[in-house]
Design brief:
This protein is mainly beta and about 55 residues long. Helix content is about 15%, strand content about 45%. The two termini are about 25 Å apart.
């Protein structure tokens, strides 16, 4: 088993509704123990991102 220091890793993910893609080629890493805030204006895709992660 290899050690991975990231608690969450997303690589080249696209998120959308039906035929409409709203986030394309999204990649990010969240290290173990990190505190992360997702901020932005209404309609920026914060809830869409969290729904895709669940």
């Amino acid at each position: 088993m290899t050690h991975n220091p990231h608690r969450l890793e997303i690589v080249n993910v696209s998120i959308g509704y039906g035929e409409k893609i709203v986030m394309r080629d999204l990649s990010f890493q969240v290290p173990h123990g990190a505190r992360v805030a997702v901020v932005g204006p209404n309609g920026a895709g914060k809830s869409t991102l969290f729904k895709a992660l669940v």
